[in-house]
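> call design_seq(struct)
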């Protein structure tokens, strides 16, 4: 099974929950049905919940760092988005660029990729009003061919050597 992008996972989750609407779905059953590793599903579900697209039923076991997700269901906002193809493609594009970075690859991101992602987030209003002042600089970094091979991993290595 090839790794799925965050956007693919989010789309699959919304479609699956919509198929079961108005009933809730068990977390482990969804992970198995969609063939998505629990860790990847977990982080995507919290993103969807933060954006009011799904509702999670979870608990914090004693001493746990992270909650346990038991059940989840789609919210009206998620159903509306799912049925609006244009908004769905804008929010969770399958091709081209997305502002949702997969931080499991953080050491492999180049500076231009990060700048492009930050600019995209600002344009979508995800960075607050302060970020708009940085758009020009971010666009210059994103286009700088001299930085295209500079990854965060290399920067982290350099910082450890100092």
């Amino acid at each position: 099974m090839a790794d799925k992008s965050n956007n693919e996972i989010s789309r699959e989750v919304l479609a699956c929950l919509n198929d079961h609407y108005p009933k809730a779905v068990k977390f482990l059953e969804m992970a198995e049905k969609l063939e998505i590793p629990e860790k990847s599903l977990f982080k995507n579900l919290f993103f969807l919940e933060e954006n009011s697209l799904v509702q999670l039923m979870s608990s914090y076991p004693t001493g746990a760092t992270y909650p346990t997700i038991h059940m989840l269901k789609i919210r009206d906002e998620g159903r509306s988005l799912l049925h609006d193809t244009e908004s769905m493609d804008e929010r969770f594009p399958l091709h081209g660029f997305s502002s949702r970075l997969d931080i499991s690859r953080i050491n492999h991101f180049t500076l231009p990729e990060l700048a492009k992602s930050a600019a995209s987030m600002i344009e979508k209003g995800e960075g607050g009003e302060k970020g708009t002042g940085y758009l020009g600089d971010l666009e210059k970094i994103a286009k700088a061919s001299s930085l295209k091979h500079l990854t965060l991993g290399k920067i982290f290595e350099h910082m450890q050597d100092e």
